[in-house]
Write a structure and sequence with these properties.
Layout lengths: L25 E6 L4 E8 L4 E7 L2 H14 L5 E6 L3 H7 L5 E6 L1 H11 L7 H15 L12 H34 L2 H6 L6 H9 L3 H5 L3 H10 L5 H13 L7 H36 L5 H5 L5 H14 L5 H7 L5 E5 L2 E5 L6 H14 L4 H12 L4 H22 L5 H10 L9
Parallel strand pairs: 1-4, 4-5
Antiparallel strand pairs: 1-2, 2-3, 6-7
Length: about 425
């Protein structure tokens, strides 16, 4: 496999940021609204102005084009809230625009401090954003250069897939709740397989225990075998469950209500399964178009769904160094102090999807990486909860991946374990 390297394809970009040396022609705070957008502007000659823009792409692009002409395409800094994707997309089409995304919590707290009455006004909101640029630009970091279209497309596919999986989980829970009320024996017949196609087929044919018990044993057995069940003992066990079970609900009206509900939920699950399968194919195709896709595929436990997510996370992070990644992805601990009390917690304002990606991968890596398993078990032995231990492991993995990026080498489990032993790391003592 080829070693990791920077390329124009959007993989592992050089994300060195130096905005302090930039002389902005103007600083602008803009507040996104459903009907209109308010802005406050300060030019480098000290002139202040404010106004509103009608909510339309034509109005927004016309305003941006006038700014381009007015400031002769010199850099202009924009402060916007993070929850303004259409505004961000429009601004970033202009190469001279430098965007600072402000977390909504930050702007809310400042707005509360400046307007203790609690009054809400879009123009003052825009002024708060501008004030942040004027007074605290040294504490802000501009967005990096836009990622490649392929990375953006892959990220969109990954997010849509995750949303569908989450929605399918909710529907499975709804199915479980309904079955518990009138057909609890279904759990013994299918265990935790409620999202599988066989469940829909089974319940479409026998929606309740009464109809199931009236069916011939040979027919039920044939159903199991024709749908991939080869364990004869397991089939016989489930046939015995059907034979000895007693219906908990016998009211036809109630049974009809539940079966109708379950039927509709299962139809949604079936649709979600088809859509997830389609997205898996698209994800695999786009993923393999990236130059360094094999590096992510071969990370322990990454697999076909998490490897593309890790690729997107690293390529869309502002920095590829360990410290920057740990802060951005929310694995770096945050220490707070009040009087004599000191406590530590995770970084709350991290991108949720990317944070989940790293923690989920950390959990799977425990099953495929010897040192990761040992790290996790040692953290648990010290009294850490499961999630805290996985977050700490993700923190550790970021250091490893950042080193691979820095040295332009692929991850090698054995070489890393050798390095741990060479450094006499406590982690290596039991490896």
């Amino acid at each position: 496999m080829n070693a990791i390297h920077n390329s124009q394809s959007g993989n592992l970009r050089d994300k060195t940021l130096d905005h302090d040396s930039t002389q902005y022609a103007a600083l602008i705070g803009i507040d996104w609204g459903d009907k209109e957008h308010a802005f406050h502007l300060k030019s480098n000659d000290g002139t202040f102005e404010s106004g509103t823009l009608r909510h339309s792409s034509e109005t927004l692009f016309q305003w941006l084009s006038k700014l381009e002409e007015r400031f002769d395409s010199r850099p202009v800094a924009f402060a916007i809230e993070a929850q303004s994707p259409p505004l961000l997309a429009a601004i970033r089409q202009f190469s001279w625009a430098v965007v600072f995304q402000i977390h909504p919590i930050t702007s809310k707290r400042l707005r509360t401090a400046f307007t203790p009455s609690g009054a809400k006004d879009d123009l003052p909101d825009a002024k708060v954003l501008l004030d942040l640029l004027i007074s605290h630009r040294d504490k802000l970091r501009p967005l990096p250069e836009p990622v490649s279209p392929k990375t953006r497309i892959l990220d969109g596919i990954c997010r849509e897939r995750r949303e569908l999986v989450d929605q399918r989980t909710k529907w499975c829970l709804q199915t479980r709740a309904a079955l518990k009320a009138y057909f609890p024996q279904a759990f013994e017949l299918f265990s935790d397989e409620l999202f599988r196609p066989i469940v829909s087929k089974f319940l479409a044919r026998w929606p309740d225990l009464i109809s199931l018990k009236t069916e011939k044993t040979s027919t039920i057995k044939r159903f199991y075998t024709s749908n991939g069940y080869r364990n004869v003992a397991l089939i016989d066990q489930r046939l015995e469950i059907i034979k000895t079970s007693i219906a908990i609900e016998i009211d036809p009206s109630r049974i009809s209500e539940y079966t109708r509900k379950v039927k509709h939920i299962l139809e949604r699950i079936e649709l979600a399964n088809r859509q997830i399968k389609e997205l898996d194919l698209q994800m695999s195709t786009v993923f393999k178009e990236h130059e360094n896709w094999q590096f992510f595929r071969e990370l322990p436990g990454a697999g076909p769904s998490l490897a593309p997510r890790l690729l997107c996370a690293i390529n869309m992070a502002p920095e590829n160094n360990a410290q920057g990644m740990q802060k951005y992805f929310g694995t770096a601990p945050v220490k707070e102090k009040s009087g004599s009390r000191v406590w530590t917690h995770r970084r709350w304002n991290a991108p949720r999807f990317f944070h989940q990606t790293w923690v989920e991968w950390a959990g799977l890596s425990v099953q495929h990486s010897r040192w990761a398993k040992e790290f996790y078990e040692q953290a648990k032995a010290r009294g850490k909860g499961r999630y805290t231990a996985l977050r700490a492991l993700a923190f550790k993995w970021m250091r490893v991946i950042a080193r691979c990026i820095e040295t332009k080498t692929d991850y090698n489990e054995e070489l890393y374990i050798q390095s741990l032993k060479k450094r006499r790391s406590p982690l290596a003592q039991r490896l």
